[in-house]
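Example A, followed by Example B.
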Amino acid sequence: MEGDKPVKCSSFEEAFTAMFKWVTDKINSNDLALQVLETAIWIEINGLPLYFYDARDRAIKMGILKDGKLV
C-alpha cells in the first residue's frame, strides 16, 4: 500500500487492518500530512470510498479497533 498502488482485500477487516497499519507507520515516521489522511486514503466498497475516519468509526463498531489499537 504505497502511493497509488491499491491493495485488494477480501473483507473490510482485512482492508482496515492494512490501512491502519500503513497509516500508523506513516504517522509515527512523520511522513503523513493530515490533509492526505483526510482526503487521499480510503477503502473502496462497492465503488464508493470510505475515508479513514469513517472507516475507523466502522472498525470500532465492528470491534476491530478498541482504544486506538487493533483487536
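Example B, a separate protein, is given below in the same form.
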Amino acid sequence: MKRSLLLSVLLLSGGLLSSCISSPERLSSNTIVKQYNKLLKGMAIQDHFVELNVGKYELNDDDSRLKLRELEAADIVSYSVERYPWWEKTVQNYMKPYTITHNYWGSQYHETQYKMVKEDRYNFEDHYIVNIGLTKKGQSLLVTEMPQPVEEVDKDMKQPEVDKSKYAWNKKDLTENWPYIENPFLKKEEPKPEETDNSTPSNQGGSKPRTTETPTQKVKDPTVRIDSLKYQAYQTLETTAETVTLKGYSVKAFKARNIQIFQKDGYPVATADVLIKTYNTTDAARILEDREDGEKVCTRVTLKYYIDKGWVLDRSSSEVDFDDYDYDEYDY
C-alpha cells in the first residue's frame, strides 16, 4: 500500500514538473512575447518620454518655434514671443589684397601684397524671446520621477547579512606603533638663516610713497545701430528657462514569428523575430517626436533552454534602443 502510494506521488510530481517546464522541442509565440514585455519593464524602457524647455528664453529657430505653436494648439503649453531686431553698422579694419607687376629682364611677374584699409560693415541682428508655460493638460503629462531598471537578483545566491563589528578583533585597536629610525649614513643639513631684503629703500621722510593712477577712459562703441531701443531692451532681458520631462509613448511586444529551434554546442537554442508597437502616445510625442499609436518595429531575439527553467530569453541579445528605429521603414 505504501509502495503504491509513493509511486503515485512520484508520477504526480513528474507530471506537474513536465507541465510547468516547456519542452525543448516546442516554443510558442506567447511565451516569447510575455518574456520580452517583462524584460522591457525590468529594463525601464517600456515607457518613453520627451523633453521640453519652459520659461523665458531665446529661440531663433523658426522650426522650433513652430513646434511650440503646435503644442499651444494642442493645449499643452502657453506660448508668447517677442522680437528684437536691429541693424548695425561698424567700421572695420582689414587687409585688402592688391597686385604689383614687376619687370625683370624683359619679362613680367605679379606679386600679391596687402594693405590695411577701413570699410563699413553691415549686420542685421534678429532675436526672438519666447515665454513658455505648461497648461493644465501639460501639467498632467509632467514626469517628476523617471522609472528605474529593476536589478536582477539571484535568490539562490543571496549572501547572508553579517554585522562584522560584533567580532572581538574588530572591537580592539590592533595596530602596531614603532619609532621612526633615521638613516645614519645621511648627513643632516643645517637650516640656512633667513635672508633679509635690504634692496628696497626705506621711506625715511615719513611721507607716503606716491602712486600714479591712470584715469579710466571710456571706450566709445564704434557700432552705429538703427532701432537701438530694441538693442537696449534685448541687453537688459533676464531669461529663466528649465527643462521638463513629459510623457511620450509606450511600447510592447505583441507577436513573435519566424521561430527556429536548433542545437548549438549540443544545447537547444531558439531565435525569433519579435514585433513591437507603440501605444498610449501623447500629443507631446506626436509633435516633438513624430510618434503615433500602432507604429511597429521588429527585433531579433535569442532564447536558451534550461532543464529546470525551460526557455529563457537571452537578455544580452534583446536590449533595444527604440529611438534608433525608423518606424516608417517597417510594414507589417
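On Example B: The radius of gyration is 39 Å.
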